Amino acid sequence: MALAAGIVGSSVALVAIPGQAAAEPAEPAAAVCQNPAEPGQIISQIPWQQTWLAPERVWPLSTGAGVTVAVIDSGTDASHPQLRDRVLSGWDALGTASGGNVDCVSHGTAVASIIVARHQDGVGFRGLAPGARILPVRISEQEVTEGVQSGSTVTPDRFAQAIRWAVDNGATVLNFSVVMYTTSPALNSAVAYARSHDVVMVAAAGNNHRTDGLPDPVTYPAALPGVIGVGAIDVNSMRVSGSQTGQYVDLVAPGDAVVGATRLSGHNSWTGTSFAAPMVAAAAALVRSAEPTLTADEVSRRLLATADPARGEPGSEAYGHGVVNLYRAVTERATTAPPEDVPPLAERSPDPVAQARASHWERISGYARGGSITAGALALLVAIGALVRPYGRKRRWRPTRRIPAAPKPPELDNPEEAFYRVPGT
Questions:
Q1: Cα dihedral: 100, 101, 107, 108 (round 10)
Q2: Per residue in 138-191, pLDDT tens?
Q3: Which residues are catalytic?
Q4: What fold is seen in the domain 26-331?
Q5: Where are the domains of the chain?
């Protein structure tokens, strides 16, 4: 289910804007919805968006306490078990309910629960900033299902009135999960008004990504200055197929099959940038609670600077500056000061015992190396002999034998006399 607002020419009953401020949690308003109860289902497992964002790491430092987040949407059901005492008295710009704490389509209830849902036994789902409070402003209950629109919505000028009312009634963070594809001078002025009053604004980037090669339509208020536009990613950190791309995408957050509350009771699985935006709004509430002195622009810069890397290059039209990181946003600090030189490591005097031990082992290693070389040489000679001996036998080699010397002739006493003697003389 997607929710769209700003269809020019819609029939909207204009009512006076009440001027009283919202200060106390609201009592459940009288039901005005024609559709029957939506019990949803109880989801006991911890949803993947909580595992990914790990808000429990931040809660010892900040829970969003003291921060009011305006959910400008289809209203918020204040009677949901996880939203009781979390929803302030709001305003219905549609003029069909007694306040903004009525929701006939569950959209705004799911958005609010992602921000502030409190712990409930047997339920794994919890809000990311459970210490914050929701100021609901009901501006649309228009559902778009398979391209068919149904339900009432407001014009851009009426949207602008809702923004000003939320600012004047104490909201320091605004969440827009209702997107518009047209704007007006009044809407532009209202966003500038909120920015001048030090309000952080977070808006869904829209779910009408085109696949025909043409650029996606521009969404408002995401495309207006001072507003953080949020796209949606799935459990594999890939952009959700419908999540729009454009220069107005500043961050991304989990937005595929995420868990959120339904009106009256129970939970459901939701997909779209509408449900990624409140995760960034919750991060803004956590930072504002932890550091109340930061301006809205400083909070916005902190969220962008501490984002985790995404698949796209920093500043890409699909992933913006990356994936929102709650812990880094609260714990890391930005500075304009020049980097400080790191002092060099101190000199350490040599350890004589360690030196003697090293020398001893070096000598032993030398002996071992010499013995290894000698043993290797002997082994090589033996191997050569073993290889050569069979070859020699085959060639009938024999060991060389010494030839004895010829015997000497007998020696004569007087060889000349014996030779010349005349016989008989």
A1: 70
A2: 998 866 555 555 567 778 899 999 999 999 999 999 999 999 999 999 999 999
A3: 73, 107, 274
A4: Rossmann fold (3.40.50)
A5: 26-331
